[in-house]
Structures are given as C-alpha cells and as structure tokens.
Amino acid sequence: MRQMAPHDHHITSPGGAQPPLRLAVGGMDCASCAMKIERAVGRVAPGAEVSVNVPQGIVRVEAVNATRPLDRAAVTAAITALGYSVAPAGGDAVAGASRHGHDHDAAAPADAHDHGAAADAGPWWQTAKARMVGLAGGALALATILDLLWPAAGSWPFVAAALIGLVPVARAAIRAARAGSVLTIEMLMTIAAVGALAIDAAGEAATVVFLFAVGEMLEGVAASRARRGIRALADLVPRTARRIGTDGRVAEVPAAGLGIGDRVLVRPGDRMPADGRIVEGAALIDESPVNGESVAREKGEGDDVFAGTVVQDRALTVEVTAAAADNTIARIIRLVEEAQESKAPVARFIDRFARVYMPVAVGLALATAVLPPLVAGADWTTWIYRGLTLLLIACPCALVISTPAAIAAGLAAGARRGLLIKGGAVLEGLAGIRMVAFDKTGTLTEGRPRVVAVTGFGIDEGEVVRLAAALETGASHPIARAILDRAILEGGLDLPQARAVTAIAGRGLSGEVEGRSLLLGAAHGLNDPALDAAVSAAGENGWSIAVLSEAGRPLGLIAMEDAPRADARAGLDALAAHGVQVVMLTGDMPAAAAAAGRALGITAHGGLLPEDKARIVREMQAAGQGPVAKLGDGINDAPALAAATVGIAMGGGTDVALETADAALLENRVGGVADLIGLARRVMAVIRQNVAIAIGLKLVFLATTIIGLTGMWPAILADTGATVLVTANALRLLRRR
Ligand SMILES: Nc1ncnc2c1ncn2[C@@H]1O[C@H](COP(=O)(O)OP(=O)(O)OP(=O)(O)O)[C@@H](O)[C@H]1O
Ligand SMILES: [Zn+2]
Questions:
Q1: Ligand 2 center to residue 129 CA distance, Å?
Q2: What pLDDT score does 312 carry?
Q3: Angstrom distance (rounded) from CA 140 to CA 144
C-alpha cells in the first residue's frame, strides 16, 4: 500500500499544518504540461506550493501559506479542465495511475498534448507525439515536392501543410485558454504560425510547426528515459519464484504473489525473489544491485536477504519476510519517486522566473512588431515577422525542464548506487556541505563491540556479566549484543528475568533484576575512586564501558573494544579531497572518543547526550562553518540528524534509516558520504550548465532576431535544440561511472 507522504521531514515540508494533496494525473509528460497545471492549480489554491512531477504523473499541492484549506475537488476540476485525467482516489491510485493510467485517452481527443497515451505502453514511435511528427513532416515533405514539381501552385501547398500540423496545437492552445491559461507554448506557436501565414511566409510556418512537433516528441522520449532510471530497479526482482509447498514440493509461482512466511528455494545464479531470512543453507550473495556493496558477502542461516540480490554459489531456502509491495527495492523506488516530486529551491526559482519571463518576452515581441513601423516608419512585414519570431523565442521549455531533469536523473543515479536522497532540496543542501559530523559507534567503527575486560567491585565478575546481560536482553544498542555474547560464553543464556527495563538514550538502561534496582550504562554521577581509575584506564585504551550500579554504588565495569571500519580512513580522505571538514560527535566517554579520533586523525567530542550532539551541530552552523551534514545510525543520533542541514542515515536499508533521515547510505561504507556530496555537486553543476545553455541560446537568438540575422525556423530549432541538449546533459548523470 502506498502511504500518504509519510516521509515529509524537516527539509521539504517546514511544518505544514495540513497534509498535502496528491493527485495522479494521466497524460502529462513535458515541461509545458507541468507549467499549465501549476498555473491552473495556483489559481484555485492561492498561496499553495504546487509541484508537478512530470514523469510519474503526480501533482502535489501543499498549503505552505495558503489563505484557505486545500480543496481537492477544485484542484481536480482545474486539472481536468485542461484536458488531463485525474485518478479518482488519492494515495493508492497514484501507483496504479503512474503505471497504466491512460484512461484520459478516451475522454480527450489525441492531439499535441495527449502524449501520455503511449508513453508507457509502447515504444516512442507509437506515441501520439510521434504521430504528430509524422503528420506534420509528411505534409511538409509533400508540399516541398509539389512546390518543386509545380511552382505555379504558389504557396498553398505550404499553407495546407502548416494548417495540418497546426490544428492539434491550436486545439490544445484553445482548450488551455478556456481553462484560464492563455499564455501557453501552444498559444505562442499558434499565433506565430497563423501570423506567418498572414504575412505570406507559409513555408516557414509549415517548417516551424514541424520542428515544434519534433521538439515535443524528443522531450517525451527524454522524460520516459529519466523515468526508467529508477523503474529499472524494479526489474531486478525476478517475476517468478520457486515456492516450497507444505508437502515439500517445489512449484514455480509469480514472485508478486509470495506472502510472508512462504518458503522459497533460491538456486545458485538466481536473483532473490523477495526480502527474507535464510532458513537453510549458506551462500555468497552479491548485493551490489541493491546497495552498491561491491564485495559479495557470505550469508547463512538467520541472515536477512534482500529481493534482487544474486545468490552466487549455493542453493538456499529462504523464508519470505515482506510482501512484494513492501520489500526493500519497492520502498527505495517509492522514496525516490516521492523525492522526485519535491522541488529544490533552485527549481522553484526557475519556475517563478519562467512565469515572469514569458509575459515579458511576449510584450517585447509585440513592441518589436509594432514600434519600429509606427515610430520610424519601417517596413511592417519585416517587423511583424521579427515580432513573430520573438514569440517563438518566448517559449521557456528548455529552461523549465533544465532543473527537474537533472534532479530526477541525479536521484535515480544515486539510488542505483545505494545512495538514497530524499528530494531536490536535499541534493542542493548536500552540494553545499562544508562539514560532516560523524558519530562513532557503528559509523566509524564496526558497531560490533567485544567485551575485553570485566571488573567487579565487591562482587564476582561472572555475576556482573549475568546481571548486566539480564538487563540487556531486549536492548538494541551494540553494547547489548556484546554483553549477551559474553554471557553466553560464560554460562549459557539461563539469565534471570529483568523487570521494568527502561532505556535512556545516550545513558544506558535501568531495571529490576532479582529484586535489585540496577543501572547499567555510562559512569555519570558515580563518585568512586576505584571505579574512576578503572574507567580512565579503559578510556586510555580506547575502550567503551558499561557500568553496573545499584543505588549509586558501582557493582562492576564491563569494557568493550570496537574495531574501526576498514574503510573509515579512505572515506574520510575522500571527504578531505572534496574540501569537507570532519568531526566526531559520540556518546561514548571522552577518553575513548579521543583515542578513536587520534587513530583516525580527526577532532572528537565525547560524552555527549543526544541533545548535546544536536546543540553542537547547531552551534557549528551558527558559527559560520556552513551547512553541516550529520551521519548517524541510531536513535541517539535522531535529534542531531534533524538539526543538521542534511541528516544522513547509515544502516543497510533499515526502516529507521530509510524513513527518518534526509539521505541514507544503503551500504555501510564511510566513503558513501563523499559519494553523496560528489553526486550532489555534479547535479548542481549540470543544473548550472543547463540554465546557461537555455538562457544563453535565448539571448543569442533574441539579438540575432532583432537585427534580422536569423528568422523563424532557426528560432524554433534553437528552442528544440536547447530542450534536447539540457535533457541529454541531465541524463549524463545516469551513466554508470
Ligand atoms: N544499552 C546500553 N547498555 C549499556 N550501556 C549503554 C547502553 N546504551 C548506552 N550506554 C552507555 O551510554 C554511552 C553512550 O551511548 P550512546 O548510545 O549515546 O553512544 P554510543 O552508541 O556509544 O556512541 P555513538 O554516539 O558514537 O553512536 C555508551 O558508551 C554506554 O556507556
Ligand atoms: Zn506536453
């Protein structure tokens, strides 16, 4: 089931009081559709933030500073008035509609703007847009031949060709105008072409109409390629699975129909058909398709496996733990698709700019057509022609698509490499990061501490471990694992029952064991010389500690060692190469933090409570160190993740990691942070190039048109060319490096 935007976190929605409206719209797949819809919705929902996701057909309306609550019916009506279809219900309809929601075809006649029709269903040459190109192109070719064979016919073959190509465009323009959007690209095209016919430039009118159709088609092709960037992940999951029946017989069934608890047989070379847990066997598993982890890993009984990963050498029996719609890949796709809807600030700016730019350009065109003849007595035909050409230049297609195309491609490229980024705003934030704060346990270290020393104060060491392990039985901190492992080693898991266990994030646990009220955790507030000596000795070795105490009196000390991650050094170096500073913020005691910091060559602050971490992150941002990213893996990092410009979760696809942070590394690799920042910077560079291309070409043709150097068809060619160029530039991000 698709949830209604459960991932609205602090960056993309600053505390919106009302849930955003989400509508699945069929039939749009280009920038001008998006602009039309945004304008129409903006009129019925004043002050609302509208983002239109072209490839996925999703319109998201959020009441950022709306004057009244969002009215779903009014928004829906505004969109249908433009000739697009809106799926009846909210959330669930979205997924369906983006895959096969082309019902609008029946209601709306196929014309220049009903290109959603075949966008998913068939190859690009079968789309309505391609038919348009064929029609306009065929008519133009016929007219040209006629003109060569029979010059006496004059210009009427071209007039006919222009009209044939123009009819669908004009229809779309009129429909949009009726719905309230007068200044559309179709309208500009229609006026320019009709005007050209009027001043007897029929040949050019026909050419312009044809080139416009080509541009629209290429844009559609590019849009579906960007969409495939993320959808390709879904193809990693095999269509069928070998389910083991209750009678032990194996039957081939559709993977989508597997239920939780089903057992499947996965043979060497097979892709995993579902998320699950190995119940029998062990094998080398290649997880690179899902999280980019480059080395195959040995997994055995009890280990979790992900749909889409490849079993390399031996057969496994796997028990399914998630339905197809909830598996890791499906969740990633959903997150990225939602992220593609959220606009980066730079995209918002461009949208606003385009909205101002179009009327200005139209005004300029009008002035160009009218002023020189009126004021200076210049030739009317020449200047009307130049004015019409400027109308074509007023089309902001390339500019409008330049940013969303780059962001969509960037997010998809990241997801393929195990870098999950939740939206354009996060990308933009990441590109500007100057400082990264890491926690220690589980991020810079393996997060698998091992007990290295146990000290008892007045009680036996085994007793210390036994009581501590009883408290840790349900705990999730890595320390719990270490202490329980030790307890098993010493005498099995025959532990006393702990009651009323409470976890205090960043401090430890409290609870009752065998009638005694115990505390286990950091050495806060215990003044005991013997304990202090043991604690500082542990700190000097870089060990972490858990102190067991009763009524403020220490009973024992457990010291643990956690190895640094093998790739920590390289990952930190990669950040340094990006000019990014690094600091360690850890809940572990200061001495242990300092030892780990020394080993890695970075500044370390220890003994921090969760709120201390958040405070330091805020202080760093305020102190002008620029945007700060915080990397963390546990609940004790949540406040700091939220305080940071960008909160990055580390932790192989766990729910917490995926849902709470702004970005997540699916693979536990320190170098992933540098990869994230590098990718974000590349995306921003592409955006800058695209904006330069789009505006630069317009300026050049603006000048050459006014001085009369170039005419109509170079103007439309420049627009088409720029649109294709910026999209192709964005798709470069999808190339595997
Ligand atoms: N479940 C627990 N059992 C025992 N001690 C704990 C537990 N949770 C926390 N502590 C104590 O509190 C300290 C701080 O814990 P916290 O979870 O904030 O940081 P951490 O996980 O050690 O390090 P980092 O902040 O780098 O992830 C630990 O070093 C430990 O002494
Ligand atoms: Zn369109």
A1: 9
A2: 86
A3: 6
CB 276 within 8 A of CB 264: yes
Q: Would you say 274 and 241 are in contact if contact means Cβ atoms under 8 Å apart? A: yes
Give yes or no for a contact between 217 and 133, defined as CB atoms under 8 angstroms apart: yes
Atom 28 in ligand 1: which residue has the minimum CA distance? 588
Q: Distances from the Cα of 199 to the Cαs of 383, 414, 493, in angstroms?
A: 11, 52, 93
* CATH class entry, domain 434-445+565-681: alpha beta
What is the distance between the alpha carbons of residues 436 and 445, in angstroms, rounded to a whole number? Answer: 16
Contact predicate 560/543, CB 8 Å: yes
Whether the CB-CB separation of 400 and 349 falls below 8 Å is answered with no
Looking at the domain 21-108, which fold is it? Alpha-Beta Plaits (3.30.70)
Active site residue 439: yes
Angle, helix 202-231 to helix 156-178, in steps of 10 degrees: 50
The catalytic residue among 8, 111, 275, 439 is 439
- Return the ligand number nearest the Cα of 613: 1
What is the CA(726)–ligand 1 centre distance, in A?
49
Lowest mean pLDDT among 241-250, 379-388, 661-670: 661-670
Report the pLDDT averaged over residues 651-661. Answer: 58
Residue 15: phi and psi, rounded to 5, are 60, 40
Topology, domain 450-561? Calcium-transporting ATPase, cytoplasmic domain N (3.40.1110)
Q: What is the distance in angstroms between the CA of the first residue and the CA of the last residue of the chain?
A: 34
For residue 97, how many C-alpha atoms fall within 13 Å in the half-sphere facing its CB? 28
Alpha-carbon gap, residue 635 to 647, rounded angstroms: 13
Q: Please spell the DSSP secondary structure of 680-714, one letter per residue.
A: HHHHHHHHHHHHHHHHHHHHHHHHHHHTTSS-HHH
Q: Which of ligand 1's atoms lies nearest the C-alpha of 589?
A: 29
ipTM over 0.85: yes
Q: Strands, E, within 240-370: which ranges?
A: 240-244, 250-254, 263-266, 276-280, 283-286, 297-299, 304-305, 310-311, 316-320
Where are any strands of DSSP class E within 208-259? 240-244, 250-254
* Cα 401 from Cα 404, distance rounded (Å): 6
If you average pLDDT over residues 490-501, what whole number do you get? 83
pLDDT tens digits for range 517-572: 999 998 877 888 889 999 989 988 989 999 999 988 999 999 999 988 889 999 99
- Please identify, in words, the CATH class of the domain defined by 238-326: mainly beta
What count of other Cβ atoms lies within 10 Å of the Cβ of residue 69?
Answer: 11
In short, whether 587's Cβ falls inside 6 Å of ligand 1 is: yes
Distance 588 CA to ligand 1 centre (A): 6
Ligand 1 closest atom vs CA 439: 26
